[in-house]
């Protein structure tokens, strides 16, 4: 091998970075002696369970299964512990917008013209999100088919390990009181439950603003191996006889050097491959492995294992629209603590004092040019002197689809969400924007806004910012309907492409195939709670318990 090759040097650097947490960060990271770079993996290995994806579902799932069985986890990203401060609350935007090749978030642009991100790090989305923790609505639990007691135990298991009460300082208090003035009632105080009204929830940031992701749910189990920078290219199948159901038997994965490795299931009828690679990654892998719509797979030269046209269909994302509010007074660093919940319609969330790179200083001049002399000073130095209030359409009826671009597993597929295709989604967005405007105009929020800046000027600011690649219209800022359409962003709550009853059964087994399950947000028909991470982690734990119980029966 040419020692000067880019691939070799990259792999060497990845290996060095992978060792840092275990050598230098003993007080920060758990004892992760079972986590290794995939370049150290043997050519062939055998396991009771192979979990593809070490994200918000895969981590608790694998940790639970490893209590009694042999488990392999294959994660395409790196370790969040190589630079633990990178995921602290103050670095939220730094981490999310990091453009480096080994960043924790892979950027892509949807066919709708909206910037988006996929997690690629052990811990998944829980490493790059705003950290808010809130359980699902009762309806979601009933529809999931999971036992209610098991669900509650799984939530509690997660909460005992990585969840903290969200702080309520001045900005978040003003948002809370503004929501109440705006009529988002009743006030439910602190609760993890998803109920109508205004509440204070939990977070995965501790009192020192350190993040505790799903990767923290491992407890150094002895029966587990986690390989980082391990990209699964294909699931392997066998058929016993002509016409019999295919059975998953193993996976092929590549390490950072591009060397292929094969992991097989042990010769046990209850051994399984479990795909937990997220809404985009899980459906992509099924297609790359031959499970999908024949008309999409065969032109790419993919051998069809099962014609399943619903894989990749029903792709959904909750829309994000909102306002930036410059403040005449100092604001604290905060992510989501207070939320307003209008069930089936929208959710209101807020953050303040976010850290920005110095290169974002142009935004301050840009805003001043739009707002004129109504405000003075700089809105940005390296920190946002103000905040954002956002609304999320609760259950979008608009859905799209996912299609492979190629057979390269590292290439994000074509994704279209069809934002606001359904009129009801647009109506809910407009209602959410009206609530935000009422919060901004409330007496409770008056301390944090310039009296001389109108809400119309705030709408003008957002309309002028390059938040996406969608066209602007003459009435973008004057029509709330057009504002929602033109300034839409993602809430990163992708779901729906491997839904229960369509691609997987109520036990999350892929329909028509043996030895293969999908357990993650791709199976959801709607995104649970205000933010889904609590339920995704719960699902991993609950299904791990159930699978382990079934194995013993």
From TrEMBL:
One of its GO terms (molecular function) is flavin adenine dinucleotide binding. It comes from the Eukaryota. Pfam families: GMC_oxred_C (PF05199), GMC_oxred_N (PF00732). PROSITE patterns: GMC_OXRED_2 (PS00624). Residues 278-292 form the Glucose-methanol-choline oxidoreductase N-terminal domain. Its cofactor is FAD. Keywords: Disulfide bond, FAD, Flavoprotein, Signal. Residues 1-26 form the signal peptide. FAD binds at residues 75-76, 121, 232, 492-493, 532-533. InterPro entries: FAD/NAD-bd_sf (IPR036188), GMC_Oxidoreductase-Related (IPR051871), GMC_OxRdtase (IPR012132), GMC_OxRdtase_N (IPR000172), GMC_OxRtase_C (IPR007867). Disulfide bonds join 429-484. PANTHER family: GLUCOSE-METHANOL-CHOLINE (GMC) OXIDOREDUCTASE FAMILY PROTEIN, OSJNBA0019K04.7 PROTEIN. Belongs to the GMC oxidoreductase family. This is Glucose-methanol-choline oxidoreductase N-terminal domain-containing protein. It comes from Gossypium darwinii (Darwin's cotton).
């Amino acid at each position: 091998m040419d020692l000067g090759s880019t691939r070799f040097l990259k792999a060497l650097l990845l290996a060095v970075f992978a060792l840092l947490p275990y050598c230098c960060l003993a007080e920060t990271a758990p004892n992760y002696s079972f986590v290794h770079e995939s370049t150290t993996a043997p050519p062939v290995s055998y396991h009771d369970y192979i979990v593809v994806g070490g994200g918000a579902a895969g981590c608790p799932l694998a940790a639970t299964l490893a209590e009694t069985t042999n488990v392999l986890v294959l994660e395409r990203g790196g370790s969040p512990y190589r630079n633990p401060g990178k995921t602290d609350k103050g670095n939220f935007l730094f981490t999310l917008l990091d453009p480096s090749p080994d960043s924790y978030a892979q950027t892509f642009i949807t066919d709708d013209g909206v910037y988006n991100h996929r997690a690629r790090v052990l811990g998944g989305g829980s490493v790059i999100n705003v950290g808010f923790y809130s359980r699902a609505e009762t309806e979601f639990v009933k529809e999931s088919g999971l036992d209610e007691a098991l669900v509650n135990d799984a939530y509690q298991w997660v909460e005992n390990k990585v969840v903290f009460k969200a702080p309520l300082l001045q900005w978040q208090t003003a948002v809370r009181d503004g929501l109440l003035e705006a009529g988002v009632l009743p006030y439910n105080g602190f609760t993890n439950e998803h109920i109508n009204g205004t509440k204070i929830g939990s977070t995965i940031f501790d009192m020192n603003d350190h993040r505790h992701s799903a990767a923290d749910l491992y407890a150094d189990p002895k029966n587990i191996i986690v390989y980082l920078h391990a990209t699964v290219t294909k699931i392997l199948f066998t058929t016993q006889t002509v016409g019999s159901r295919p059975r998953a038997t193993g996976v092929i994965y590549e390490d950072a050097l591009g060397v292929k490795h094969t992991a097989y299931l042990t010769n046990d009828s209850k051994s399984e491959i479990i795909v937990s690679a997220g809404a985009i990654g899980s459906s992509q892998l099924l297609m790359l492995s031959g499970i999908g719509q024949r008309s999409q797979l065969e032109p790419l030269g993919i051998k069809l294992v099962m014609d399943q046209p619903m894989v990749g269909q029903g792709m959904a994302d909750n829309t994000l629209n909102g306002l930036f509010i410059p403040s005449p007074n100092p604001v604290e660093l905060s992510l989501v603590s207070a939320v307003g919940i209008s069930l089936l319609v929208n959710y209101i969330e807020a953050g303040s004092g976010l850290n920005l790179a110095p290169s974002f200083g142009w935004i301050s001049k840009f805003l001043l040019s739009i707002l004129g002399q109504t405000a003075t000073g700089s809105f940005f130095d390296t920190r946002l002197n103000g905040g954002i209030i956002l609304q999320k359409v609760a259950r979008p009826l608009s859905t799209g689809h996912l299609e492979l671009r190629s057979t390269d597993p590292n290439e994000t597929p074509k994704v279209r969400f069809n934002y606001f295709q359904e009129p009801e989604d647009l109506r809910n967005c407009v209602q959410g924007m009206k609530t935000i405007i009422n919060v901004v105009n409330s007496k409770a929020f008056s301390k944090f806004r310039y009296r001389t800046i109108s809400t119309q000027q705030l709408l003008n600011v957002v309309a002028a910012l390059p938040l996406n690649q969608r066209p602007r219209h003459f009435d973008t800022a004057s029509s709330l309907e057009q504002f929602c359409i033109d300034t839409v962003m993602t809430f990163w709550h992708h779901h729906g492409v491997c839904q229960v009853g369509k691609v997987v059964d109520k036990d999350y087994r892929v329909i028509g195939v043996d030895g293969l399950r999908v357990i993650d947000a791709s199976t959801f028909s709607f995104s649970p709670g205000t933010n889904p991470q609590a339920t995704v982690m719960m699902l991993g734990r609950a299904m791990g318990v159930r699978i382990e119980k079934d194995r013993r029966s």
